[in-house]
Specification:
Blueprint (H helix, E strand, L loop, with lengths): L1 E3 L2 H9 L4 H7 L1 E5 H13 L3 H12 L2 E4 L1 H8 L1
Parallel strand pairs: 1-2, 2-3
Helix pairs in contact: 1-4, 3-4
């Protein structure tokens, strides 16, 4: 099952060292570019541990970044 996530669950699970649950429960998590910017780009600049973990899940393909325009077309 695929799910869409905002930044709060990623940051919270990252701080708790429980990001592994995303893969275990859902397999694949989709985030928007803005979420990536907030969690990873900003987090890496601030050297936040959870940002490094989220970036690693993106590299492994567990978390995928999607363009918001794709979702708008699905809703319309």
């Amino acid at each position: 099952m695929n799910v869409v996530s905002n930044s709060s669950p990623l940051i919270s699970l990252g701080k708790l060292d429980m990001l592994f649950l995303l893969e275990k429960l859902y397999g694949k998590v989709i985030i928007m570019q803005a979420v990536y910017g907030e969690v990873v780009v900003r987090g890496l600049k601030e050297e936040r541990k959870d940002a490094f973990h989220v970036a690693a899940l993106i590299e492994r393909g567990i978390i995928c970044i999607e363009n918001i325009e794709v979702w708008r077309r699905c809703v319309e």
